[in-house]
Amino acid sequence: MQKKSILVLACCCLLLPAAALAGGYSMNPGKWTFSTTMTMPMLPAPQVSTNTECVSKEEAERDPLANLVDVGSCTITKKEMHGANLDFEMECNEKGMASKGKGHFSAQGNTVSGSMEMTMDMPTMQGMPGMPAGPMKMTTSWKGQRIGACD
Length: 151
Known about the structure:
alpha+beta
């Protein structure tokens, strides 16, 4: 069960580029390409993914942290807007596994970027030798570029 919780949290972090798109602060709808890099001790190397997607006007106007809250296990504890920048802190509890994090979004017309650092309190996991219990840090960064109108 705890392994599944880690994967759910990791998926949330991968959704952050889409969330960054959604902030109504100086973000243009259209076709975007995103690159996300995730680093955590249980991965042998940083995981990099790139995707292209169409962002509608409605998605561009959505709160950039809504995807994290929609998952149901995270609460935003601090949120500060400074022009095109958003700094935030959050706490999550997925099936008894607590985590805390902080991050940053920036949206400036045709570019977005951001990062987030989460610290999870890892329980001892049966059947997973070599997986240490205790705090584990996961770092995610992303950047996006508008590449034109949607197809």
